[in-house]
Write a structure and sequence with these properties.
Blueprint: H1 2-5, H2 8-26, H3 28-33, H4 37-40, H5 44-64, H6 71-90, H7 93-121
């Protein structure tokens, strides 16, 4: 089951990529222009890859619940993601970037902790 935890660096990279994309599409320049990023749209390939990685990320977080070593991290990642999603759904567009940044920072910290724990167990 340690192999499941070894996927943490991949999801850490994905999380940083997600933060960069959110800054690009929801950044301060976009907000200042009054542009709605939902009208910009992603490219079809980018949207597909992003969606598949999100589905894989959720499955991985749920599978972590079955591993005694990663159970706390998996539960924490799921809780942070669900709270962040509910906050983003209920706030104005200009606050979504702030919420995404805090949510992403917490998830990056949890993934770094999981990576460190996996490293020590190798």
């Amino acid at each position: 089951m340690l192999t499941l935890i070894l996927f943490a660096p991949l999801f850490l990279i994905f999380e940083v990529w997600q933060l960069v994309l959110s800054e690009r599409y929801l950044g301060i320049k976009q907000i200042a222009r009054g542009a709605d990023p939902r009208s910009l749209g992603l490219g079809e390939l980018t949207a597909f890859i992003w969606s598949m990685q999100l589905i894989g990320y959720w499955l991985w977080m749920m599978m972590l619940l079955a591993v005694p070593i990663g159970r706390i991290h998996g539960m924490s990642l799921l809780i942070v993601t669900m709270i962040g999603y509910s906050l983003r759904r209920g706030n104005a567009l200009k606050w979504v970037l702030v919420i995404l940044t805090f949510e992403g920072a917490i998830r990056v910290g949890l993934l770094l902790s999981l990576c460190g724990m996996a490293w020590r167990r190798l």
